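Subject: Sanity check before I submit

Could someone independently write out the structure tokens for this chain? I want to compare against mine line by line before I put it in a report. The sequence has 101 residues.
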Amino acid sequence: MLTSVDSDVIRALGDPLRLKIVTLLARETLCTTHLVAETGAKQTNLSNHMKVLREAGLVETEPCGRFTYYKLRPDVLAGLSEQFAALATAARGAAENKRAC
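---
Independent answer below. Compare away.
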């Protein structure tokens, strides 16, 4: 069963820019400047999206001088993946279960 935490993660990944950010962070740890350059988003818009991703638990920050680096939390994505795999397994079995009216 998906929890409210999982729902927050799914909601955070539902935005195309945030999904792009997560895809970029899956390859390397990046600072705000890198993310602005890679996505073409305005810095303030990007900061708002990063806040959503942080609050959902998908990314964590790493201060480095005057820059803030962001890195993905693979454990959160792995947990979500396991939940979806369990749902897929249940759905395969449910195809033969039909509740009588």
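---
OP: Matches mine. For the report I'm noting this point. The radius of gyration is 17 Å.
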